[in-house]
Amino acid sequence: MTVRNLDALFRPKSVAVIGASERPGSTGAMVWARLLEGGFDGPLWPVNPKYHTLNGHAVIADAGDLPQAPTVALICTPPATWPSIIHKLGGLGTRAAIIVGEARCDDDRLALRHALSAARPHLLRIVGPGSLGVVSPALRAHFGAPSCTVKAGGVAWVSQSNALTNAVVGWAHARGLGFSHAVALGGEADVDAGDVLDYLASDPGTRAILLELDSVRAARKFMSAARAAARNKPVLALRSGRADPADALYTAAFRRAGMVRVDALDDLLDEIETLGVGRVAAGATATLITSDRGLATLACDAFAAAGDTLAPWPDEASQALQQALPNVIGGNPLQLGDDARPEHFGTALKLLAQHRGTGTAFVVHASTHSAPVDEVAQALIANQRFAYRGLLACFFGGVDAATRDALHAQGIPVHTTPQRLARAFARLVDYRMGRANC
């Protein structure tokens, strides 16, 4: 099997839903509804002998009667039907199928084996069984039953857990974040994590890959795909089961492949913000810009704990800042003073641009009467072009949705604590160092 076989899954032109339904609570109804809500604009064919029409679409009685081969088929029927459906789809020329139902008992698993045998001569790839689905938001392709429609973004999510996929998709949706693709692998009877990593390694719409898994089916294939992916873009992995005696092997394998292992789901969620939104250039140093000594101390502690490095400051940089902003305390961190106004943050970014050794710019701020968070955000947006190695923000208490979206549109990630900000940056540095050592 090759990556080319997966192109149908991630770049679909048409789709059939086998078992599409209007019965409330049924899998077929949920999958069909999500497909319609997503707005996929290719041909849609519901297949079910019990209906003549569904939501204005003519219903096909049997998969063998489809007018042409769907690029992807979503199978929502019982396991006993899988082999014959796959046989018919393969004969038509379908290249990918997602089996939403689970193989729970011996008879189900036997039906699955027969379905895999039926798929093999046709090079038809199967995701699942028990897959929540595959989502490619840029194509408005919501294939499966995720909890909500998904916004397009630059980060891919790949997971063996339906529940975590639903949770992460919902978390991102609530924060205006999106994905290039989101994949719930299910039982991995055919398509597994290695296959998907191999495809995403060269996917131009994916800037980074977040991987959640508890086991690897084909170690050699997985490692080859992981190396290829990590050479091209950051790959961060969360593996559950720290108490497993074999867990150290996973840590070593991830490191050897150039991936970065994270310890908690929160860490992966922070990277959806940082990698999906930000445009952070290569580099291992940073400059902190704050308004308050207390914030500066908190931020420095967070950076030290994460292993981050603050950029050394040339004297001429401090002198230039103090001439433009008399109350500033020069150096790194840069303290603008308790009475700092929003435009002072913009001035600081402009002056930093004249000194190339200052690294990535980090603004850590809590709202004050003289510098409300939303106005500081607008100052950052107006001057972000001067942060040539990237700009990340931490606003205690967060920002409203409109301000957040405006920051995102300009490539500025927003975190709510300096600890999360510092750890997110440290993982990017870890990735670059790991890649250099591979």
From TrEMBL:
Gene Ontology molecular function, alphabetical: ATP binding; ligase activity
The keyword Transmembrane helix is annotated on this UniProt entry: no
Pfam families named among the record's database cross-references: CoA_binding_2, Succ_CoA_lig
Keywords, comma-separated and alphabetical: ATP-binding, Ligase, Nucleotide-binding
Keyword Nucleotidyltransferase: no
Gene3D superfamilies membership: NAD(P)-binding Rossmann-like Domain, Succinyl-CoA synthetase domains
SUPFAM superfamilies in alphabetical order: NAD(P)-binding Rossmann-fold domains, Succinyl-CoA synthetase domains
InterPro entries noted in UniProt: Acyl-CoA_Synth/Transferase, CoA-bd, NAD(P)-bd_dom_sf, Succ_CoA_lig_flav_dom, Succinyl-CoA_synth-like
The protein, known as: Acyl-CoA synthetase (NDP forming)
